[in-house]
Amino acid sequence: MLKILYHRFISSVLWNLFLISAGAIVFAIGVKAIAIPHGFITGGVSGMTLLIYYVSGRMSPGLWYLAINIPIFLFGWLHVSRRFFFYSLFGMAIMSLAIDLVQITFPIKEPILAVLAGGALMGAGSGIILHSLGSAGGLDIVGIILNQKFNVRLGSFYFAFNVVLFAFSFGFLDADLVLYSLFTSFISSQTMDYVLAVSNQRKMVFIISDLNEQIARELQARLNRGSTYLNGSGAYTGRAKQIILTVVHNYQLKRLEEVALTIDPDAFIITENTFNVLGRGFSRRKVY
User: Fold this and answer.
1) Number of Cβ within a 10 Å radius of residue 221
2) Residues 6+ apart with CB under 8 A from 122
3) Helix H or strand E segment including 5
4) Hey, which of 56, 69, 171, 234 would disulfide with 137, CB 3.0 to 4.6 Å?
5) pTM of the model
6) Residue 245 sits in which domain range?
């Protein structure tokens, strides 16, 4: 019952609007408090916005962001869903508003520290937004379409786009600022991928033991985690063995080790990171 209520809550309109709003504010702080005072290009459509703003000196960054997004939204309507379109429309509006309204400046003088702080804030903001069923418009829409259809990682796509964007920036901006912006984009894309993955990260565990049935029963009883037997054989002994395969949450790993090694101190345990587990007891497929 609690799981049903939880999934209903994270799919609710209120929760999604909160994620989009919170992420937009965090991103806007990174832009206005750090990126703009140092003359950095933030990357993506917002970076294109700042480049046009720096070159033309007309309108505000928020208005440029709004204008560039209009044609991109047609792709979201056609290739994702209407729900995604309206959430993203809200995201674009709140992002434009936040960028214009945030008026704080962090007193960071060292450019490399500004790169780290600005990239981390913008990446975290983007990651929070993309945990919702919408986006902030712009490059997010293109990235989500590529991710849904071709499994392209969002951070990798953003960074590749920004490399091209920054290449054009060399003709208009100081080379040092362009390179600082490139590093900011790299930090941002890595932070965003981390924020997106951290809630879905799980541990895939293989347990090799002669007492596998007892271990599997205890995992079910104490951790509420099911197991699968894989058939194998020892290369040296030639004896047939059943290998336990299970997936646990990060916080359950030490308890799993305690269970297995208490039953069989000679058990062989192999642990691997896995960043996306779909199925009962874990994440559901994200449907926009």
Assistant:
1) 10
2) 27, 30, 31, 35, 42, 184, 188, 191
3) helix 2-10
4) 69
5) 0.81
6) 202-274
Each residue of 76-123: pLDDT tens digit?
Answer: 888 888 999 999 999 988 988 998 899 999 999 999 999 999 999 999
Structural domain count, the chain: 2
Residue 112 in 3-state DSSP? Answer: helix
Give the residue from 48, 63, 69, 35 showing the smallest Cα distance to 169. 48
Same domain, 226 and 262: yes
Q: Is the pLDDT of residue 283 over 70?
A: no
Q: The tokens 């990357």 sit on which residue?
A: 43
Q: What does each C-alpha distance from 99 to 140, 142, 209, 277 come to in angstroms?
A: 17, 21, 57, 35
Q: State both tokens at 86.
A: 């309206």
Give the helix/strand (H/E) hosting 109: none
Q: Could you report the per-residue pLDDT of 14-43, keeping only the tens digit for each? A: 999 999 999 999 999 999 999 989 988 777
Distance CA 67, CA 62 (A): 9
Residue labelled with tokens 């091209």: 164
